[in-house]
Give the backbone structure.
Amino acid sequence: LQSITIRRPDDWHVHFRQGEMLANMVPLTSRHFKRARVMPNTDPPILTGAQALIYHGEIMAVAPAGFETKMTIKVVPETTPAIVREAFGLGIDAGKLYPDGVTTLSANGVRDFKALSPVFAEMEKLGMVLCLHGEDPGEDVFCLDREERFLKTLQWILDKFQGLKVVMEHLSTAEAVYVVEHFPTKNLAATVTPHHLENTLNDVIDGGLRPHHYCKPIAKRPEDRDRLIRAVTRLGQTKFFLGTDSAPHYRESKECDCGAAGVFTAPLALPLLAQIFEENGALGQLEAFTSVNGANFYGLPLNEETITLVREPWTVPDEYSGVVPLRAGKEIRWQVASDLG
Ligand code: NCD
Ligand code: ZN
């Protein structure tokens, strides 16, 4: 097979940042993706609908025609039902919750989930989606156990708010895959990143420290990665969809004493996914993962445009505007046809 044409994909989890970084990042995502769900962990964060609209304006100012964003507000301990209602009224259809301190710019995040019950109830009532960074922030929790330990909090939320739609973001463990696959209703779904389908902890810390492979949640065991691959490539699966979690940090912020968490993948996410799906004999399932399941979960129309990937090797650049991408300097067998020179 030399080429494959699929519906134009969406990225349901991306970090664009602000200022010059934003201006460099948006075009790299819009080149391949029709829509993107933009994360609110900017500095300062996006806490209200009004702030989300301003941020949306900043993105649109540097985006080519035809690109669309879905904005999120950050759900923090200070979030109220009124804030949620107002944001929803302004067209913000999701809130992203970061447990306290688990990742980049998540200080002053959530520890007391029960205290947010009125907010979850309001989101449930409105039909606003709760996007979860699913890691237990406890000081006593070992870093590789944070996602698995969060599953009891997830279960509590799903039990208590049975109409609430929840996305577990960037899955990294077999245990979390199991929970999502076996959940009895359509209210729970999950995003999966290209790097969690590619890397294990070995790629982060074995045979040399690789800061550009460091992200939260941390890449785990080969069994976890293989379980993720099975989940996303399974024929007819509807619960898993692409959220790249493309999270750019300048090289200096990664290659230093206390490096930032985040893997940058926007320009190569789609080619790499084609390669991974092909290696697993599942190119036919790529479109469901990149272009169908997410839109269906969010209740949005499927994209009518298409994109063509061709089996033509290229080498990933060493840097994009000061940011080192996943697989820098390495070859990927597929590329997007419109990128061909
Ligand atoms: C993200 C970032 O850099 O903003 N980092 C990461 O390691 N994934 C935040 C996040 O999604 O956790
Ligand atoms: Zn993220």
Q: What stands out?
A: The mean pLDDT is 98. Residues 15, 41, 103-105, 133, 215-216, 245, 247, 261-262 surround N-carbamoyl-L-aspartate (ligand 1) (CB under 6 Å). The CA atoms of residues 85 and 150 lie 27 Å apart. The longest strand covers residues 306-315.
